[in-house]
C-alpha cells in the first residue's frame, strides 16, 4: 500500500508533468472506484491542472478549483504515460485499468488496481474536506506543528498498542503498515507497547523516529518516476517484509507476527529485549 512518502513523491511527480495542462477527457472503466457523482467526472474536460498536493495517503489533483482526490488503497497505483493510446481503453489485464485521465498534449495517467479485493477510491469534489477520509485525518507527521509535545498529547491516555496507534489515520495521518514497522524499529520499541505507558524519553525517541524515517523515505522517493516508487520503497525498508533476514543494525533474525489480513515485522534484539512476540490474530486495535 502506498503510504505518505510514496504519495508525496507522486504529488511532486505530477506537479512536474501535469500542472499547466488541460484535461482532455476522463475515462472511467471501473465504476466502483468512482465514489462521487456531483460534480460529474465529465466536468473536468477543458479545465487545467493547477496544483497537486497530499492529505495523508490521499492524492489531491486541483483542476481549476475542482479536486480529483485519489486513495490508492492496498493495490492501486498511478502510471503516467507520455502518449496515451487513441483506441478506447478496455478493462482487464494484469493491472486492470480503473480510470484514465487524458491531458491536452496527448499524455496522461492511468489509475490501476491489481487483485480481487478492490479499494481504489476516486472522488471529484469542490473541497477536499468533502472526502470523508480527509475530513477525519489526524495531524500530518511532517507538519511543523507535529512536535514532541504534540505527540505526547496524542499518546496520553490511549490504552492502545503503539503499532495500531501509528496506523490509525484519525490519530496520525499517512503512516501505514510498512512505515509503522520501520518507525518502531528505529525507535527500538515493541509494536505491542501500550501508548500511554511511554516515558517522556520514549515519546521523544518515537517522535524522532517518525520524522526521520518519513523524511528519509520522502528524500529517497522524490524525483523518481512513478513506476520506480514501489521498488524504491521495498529497497529502503529495513525490517518490513524482511522476515527471516538479518537485522541491519544488530544481525538478529527479523521475525513476524501474522494477523487475519496483514503482518508486522520486528527485530527481537532491537525492540523486545530479545524475546519473540506471541503470534496472535488481528485485534481491533491493529486494524
UniProtKB/TrEMBL annotation:
GO terms for biological process: base-excision repair. Its cofactor is Zn(2+). It comes from the Bacteria. The keyword Nucleotidyltransferase does not apply. Residues 238-272 form the FPG-type domain. SMART domains: Fapy_DNA_glyco (SM00898), H2TH (SM01232). GO terms for molecular function: 8-oxo-7,8-dihydroguanine DNA N-glycosylase activity; damaged DNA binding; DNA-(apurinic or apyrimidinic site) endonuclease activity; lyase activity; zinc ion binding. It catalyses: Hydrolysis of DNA containing ring-opened 7-methylguanine residues, releasing 2,6-diamino-4-hydroxy-5-(N-methyl)formamidopyrimidine. InterPro entries: FPG_cat (IPR012319), FPG_N (IPR035937), H2TH_FPG (IPR015886), Ribosomal_uS13-like_H2TH (IPR010979), Znf_DNA_glyclase/AP_lyase (IPR000214), Znf_FPG/IleRS (IPR010663). The keyword Metal-binding applies. Residues 2-93 form the Formamidopyrimidine-DNA glycosylase catalytic domain. Keywords: DNA damage, DNA repair, DNA-binding, Glycosidase, Hydrolase, Lyase, Metal-binding, Multifunctional enzyme, Zinc, Zinc-finger. Belongs to the FPG family. This is Formamidopyrimidine-DNA glycosylase.
